[in-house]
Design goal:
The protein is of the alpha+beta class.
Length: 360
């Protein structure tokens, strides 16, 4: 009849498992597994632990643990007892309680030794898996800023590529603490919370963008930064021979038809700004791009740089005020629903007129 150790060893070898593989799966030290397989029960930390180890290994090998544990308990006690520690001098126990106390102390020491061995072995396994994580490097995010306003959360080493005409210039989020250090081709700048700075990114002595630190989270090493290039430089020279449509009032009120805003000998990019004084559903389509829809409230603003034309839809036109250059434009009254096109049109005398054209 096979022994407990022989049955466990055969099950392990039949499944092609090494001692280390079984130890990793069952959290039993390899030396204890080998001792069980060789029926060296006296090298294990007590009868209770032996029975527990046999049950765990049997379940892992998909064996019935009960007969194996019963077989172990049927082994004569002297064959599975712990070895008595060698003594340099004889100790005479005069009372039974002294002997019981010594046994308890030895059991506690054996459990402590087993726990230390288990933690040490587990620590080694943990160290090998932790090495790749420590070697991982943060891969910075790279963002391209094509729009006029850009606001988002940044981590250290993230990069924003700001388009300046035909070139681009990088802003690098170098470090984040109570303040943020930004790196540019012209040097580093430090930005405190709620502070705004204007930056010359291309070294032409003109300001290109305005940056502001909206919020900072030192522990997470992240910050919310806003970049505004409505002051983008070099600033185009004033439109030559511009004439504002003569009106008695300073605000252009548009209802239907075509109303000119300004004329120029050439088409130029223009800044479209709209402020909202109350609730308004706003949809716009700049230069034939995909339309954007927003529900705006009092205090909301939209800034856009337009090349050719922008189409505008408003559900409550009296709450929206448009600015283009020095001209202020109202497209209707409270409750009015309107749709307009604002763009360049060529004239017979080879000039261009920026006009508002009703689409309804």
């Amino acid at each position: 009849m096979d022994s407990v150790g022989a049955i466990l060893k055969k099950a392990r070898e039949d499944q092609g498992l090494s001692l280390n593989q079984v130890s990793s799966a069952t959290h039993i030290l390899p030396c204890y597994i080998q001792a069980l397989e060789e029926n060296r029960f006296q090298d294990l930390p007590g009868e209770t632990y032996c029975a527990g180890f046999i049950g765990s290994l049997a379940r892992y090998y998909k064996l019935d643990s009960r007969p194996l544990v019963s077989m172990f308990r049927g082994i004569p006690k002297e064959e599975r007892e712990e070895p008595k520690p060698e003594r340099k001098a004889p100790v005479i126990m005069t009372e039974k309680r002294h002997f019981a106390k010594l046994i308890r102390i030895l059991v506690v020491l054996a459990v402590l030794v087993a726990a230390v061995c288990f933690i040490f072995a587990g620590g080694k396994r943990g160290d090998s898996s932790a090495v790749p994580k420590a070697q991982e490097e943060h891969q910075p995010n790279v963002f391209v800023m094509d729009e006029v306003l850009f606001e988002r959360s940044f981590a250290e080493n993230d990069i924003v590529q700001v388009r300046l005409g035909s070139i681009s210039s990088d802003i690098v989020c170098k470090s984040i603490g109570n303040s943020v250090v930004l790196g540019t081709s012209q040097g580093n700048v430090t930005l405190a919370q709620s502070q705004e700075l204007v930056l010359d990114l291309d070294g032409d002595s003109s300001n290109d963008v305005k940056v502001s630190l909206k919020d900072v989270f030192p522990q997470e090493r992240t910050a919310v930064i806003r970049i505004d290039r409505t002051i983008e430089a070099p600033v185009p020279p004033p439109l030559p021979t511009v004439t504002i449509t003569p009106k008695a009032e300073s605000t252009i009120m548009h209802d239907k038809g075509t109303v000119p805003i300004l004329v120029s000998p050439e088409k130029r990019n223009f800044i479209f700004e709209i402020d909202f004084s109350g609730p308004c559903y706003f949809r716009y389509q700049p230069d034939g791009a995909e339309s954007v829809e927003k529900y705006c409230r009092s205090g909301d603003q939209v800034h856009l740089e337009v090349t050719e034309e922008i189409k505008v839809w408003l559900s409550n036109a009296g709450n929206a005020r448009i600015r283009i250059g020095d001209a202020e434009i109202m497209l209707g009254n409270l409750g009015d629903v309107t749709s307009e096109r604002i763009g360049w049109e060529a004239t017979a005398d080879k000039t261009y007129t920026l006009s508002i054209v009703s689409m309804h």
